[in-house]
Specification:
Pfam families: Ribosomal_L44. InterPro entries: Ribosomal_eL44, Ribosomal_LSU_eL42, Ribosomal_zn-bd. Belongs to the eukaryotic ribosomal protein eL42 family. By secondary structure, the protein is mainly beta. It has a domain at 26-68. It has no helices and four strands. The strands form two sheets. It has a two-stranded antiparallel sheet. It has a two-stranded antiparallel sheet with strand order 3-4. The radius of gyration is 24 Å and the shape is elongated.
C-alpha cells in the first residue's frame, strides 16, 4: 500500500521553500566579443530594473548611451 488513508495528507512540503528574496533588480551586464579573436569579456554596469542601450534620452553622463530608471 503506497499511500494509505492513515498517511494521506500528512507531512507537507518535503524540501525547504526559500521565501527571503532580497534583491528586486538584476545587475546589467554587457557582453563584449572581439571580432578578430572572438575573445569574450563581461562588463557589469549598475543595478537597474530598466535599461535601454543607445537611446538619445540620457540621464547624466553615461558612456554606454543607456537609460537608467
Amino acid at each position: 500500500m503506497q499511500c494509505g488513508a492513515s498517511v494521506a495528507g500528512f507531512g507537507g512540503q518535503t524540501k525547504p521553500v526559500f521565501h527571503k528574496k532580497a534583491k528586486t533588480t538584476k545587475k546589467i551586464v554587457l557582453k563584449f566579443e572581439c571580432t578578430k579573436c572572438k575573445a569574450k569579456r563581461m562588463k557589469p554596469i549598475k543595478r537597474t530594473k530598466h535599461f535601454e542601450l543607445g537611446t538619445d534620452s540620457k540621464k547624466g553622463k553615461n558612456e554606454y548611451g543607456g537609460k537608467y530608471r
